[in-house]
Task: inverse folding
């Protein structure tokens, strides 16, 4: 896998954050899972973080602890992609995507509660944080499933077509 794919993913991930979209309907988790599956281990972690950092530079930074939880969550997704290596099939890919979405929801909303000012620092405040974030979790799930399907599906289709083309060339020798 050449480096240009990694750079293309960073640019794509950063660019898609600027387009109008539903909150949390974003490609960053898919990029992390894809990087973990197909690129080097370092790229699996660095790609989503680079895409976030590049776009956050223009979008703006916010509460450092909450941002750290978001970045940490995407790093966890990269590790989930690494785990997926050698176990890749539709069921495992979907399962890992759901785990990535869930850990993002749990980790980032805990950080919003713990480091933000929106909720009281009580169990009821934490519960309120999670309940109020459910619409965002729905978007996270939908976005992650959509972008993982699009990214992995497109990559596998292109790879399949290239193998098919190569086999076809081998099966039809030139006749004079």
Result:
């Amino acid at each position: 896998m050449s480096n240009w794919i990694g750079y293309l993913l960073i640019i794509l991930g950063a660019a898609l954050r600027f387009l109008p979209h539903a909150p949390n309907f974003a490609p960053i988790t898919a990029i992390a899972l894809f990087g973990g599956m197909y690129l080097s281990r370092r790229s699996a972690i660095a790609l989503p973080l680079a895409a976030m950092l590049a776009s956050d530079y223009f979008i703006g930074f916010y509460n450092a602890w909450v941002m750290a939880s978001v970045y940490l969550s995407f790093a966890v997704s990269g590790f989930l992609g690494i785990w997926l290596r050698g176990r890749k099939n539709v069921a495992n890919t979907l399962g890992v995507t759901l785990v990535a979405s869930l850990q993002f929801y749990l980790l980032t909303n805990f950080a919003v509660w713990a480091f933000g000012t929106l909720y009281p620092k009580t169990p009821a405040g934490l519960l309120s944080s999670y309940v109020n974030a459910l619409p965002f979790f729905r978007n996270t799930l939908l976005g992650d499933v959509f972008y993982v399907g699009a990214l992995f599906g497109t990559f596998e289709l292109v790879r399949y077509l290239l193998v098919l083309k190569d086999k076809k060339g081998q099966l039809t020798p030139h006749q004079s």
